[in-house]
Amino acid sequence: MAAELKILYVAPLDERSTALYRMWAIERAGEKAIPLDIVRLFSGGIAGKAQYWLGTKFGLGPVVAKFNRDVLRMAREQKPDVMWGDKLLFILPKTLDALRAMGIVTVNYSIDNPFGPRGDFGWDLYMKCIPHYDLHVVQRDQNVIDYKARGARDVLKIQTAFEPTLQYPPPAGWSDKDRDREVSFVGTPYDERPEFLLRLKREFGVPVEVRGTRWLWEKRMQPAEMQEIFIGDEVYLQEYREAIWRSKINLSFLTHSNQDEFAHKSFEIAGCGAFLLVERSAGHLERFIEDEEAVFFSGVEECAEKIRRYLPDEAARERIAAAGYKRAVASGYGNDGQVGKILERVRNIVAGLSK
């Protein structure tokens, strides 16, 4: 039996963070995770924003300096085999080099896309660090190419995943009598989602309801538009799971501005044993059999057509939802399966350093 890996796990670790769920999967795999929480690294207000800008742009400022000292201090004290960072925007190249000199394998996990057309802020220092990691974990074929072009030593493609301790099917006997929402979307207003959802409601009469971070949706819609489809703030943990359970049809979208091949939400909905209606893509077609394990659409007209087809057909929705859940479990779309792939690659790198 392989020796336990000691992993210094540097990530945002609040209960709403998917990074925390990946740490749980590391521990379920029998490895030792040593947490370093970065949730409250920067304060709010103008001073906090200035520190964030200086840190992500130039690697400057007292917060960044303290963070890098803390990483190295914990590495010296805990003597881990691995430092696993979750989209660390503030780590310095010299810190990664120091860890490597200590014989510690460095891993960067990021489901976001620093090369994408969305143009997110804060990637400058991160880009400089790419050649200094031992392994980058990404979720796009294009990112494998992009990272290697930037000098990455090794790149592994995985996919986003559902968390089986939080996202699982409803109790036996759950049916439409327990579902008080017809069609729903829980998430962010990226790309043209607000316009798409408003068209579903206005042009096709779809009873769609939206939850998400209120201020983000308010930036994209007028107050009257918010009243049409927006029903409440983002939900998390058991409330998120129950929101999925309580909807007859759960919508999921690609984030085109992030060059996504599939949607994280798709695996979460399938993990909850719910009916998934998702934007068609090669990534989704590869992972679910169309009209058997999930239902796909391309464009608002086809989406409305699929809703008209399946909304009154509870039996078909139940059958597809059950098959989607079975596929998600069997194909390893949960955190255990995806984190397991990363740990396998990490073990190979650790073994290579010891030779």
Would you spell out the secondary-structure blueprint of this structure?
Layout: E1 6-11, H1 18-28, E2 32-37, H2 45-58, H3 62-78, E3 82-86, H4 93-101, E4 105-109, H5 124-129, E5 135-138, H6 141-149, E6 155-157, E7 181-186, H7 193-204, E8 208-212, H8 214-220, H9 223-229, E9 230-233, H10 237-245, E10 247-252, H11 264-271, E11 276-279, H12 282-287, E12 295-297, H13 300-310, H14 314-330, H15 335-354
Parallel strand pairs: 1-2, 1-3, 3-4, 4-5, 5-6, 7-8, 7-10, 8-9, 10-11, 11-12
Helix pairs in contact: 1-15, 7-13
> What summary fits the major beta sheet?
6 strands, parallel
Strand content: 15-25%
Count of DSSP H/I helices: 15
Task: Give the rounded overall mean pLDDT.
Answer: 96
Euclidean distance between termini CA atoms: 18 Å
Helix content: 40-55%
Number of strands: 12
Radius of gyration: 21 Å
**Strand order, sheet with most strands:** 2-1-3-4-5-6
What does the overall shape look like? globular
N-to-C SSE string, H for helix and E for strand: EHEHHEHEHEHEEHEHHEHEHEHEHHH
Q: Which secondary-structure class do the elements indicate?
A: alpha/beta
Uncertain ranges:
none
Describe the structure.
- The protein is of the alpha/beta class.
- 46% of the residues lie in helices and 16% in strands.
- The chain has 15 helices and twelve strands.
- The strands form two sheets. A six-stranded parallel β-sheet has the order 2-1-3-4-5-6, sandwiched between helices.
- Strand 4, helix 5 and strand 5 form a beta-alpha-beta unit.
- Helix 1 packs across helix 15.
- The radius of gyration is 21 Å and the shape is globular.
- The model has no long low-confidence stretch (mean pLDDT 96).
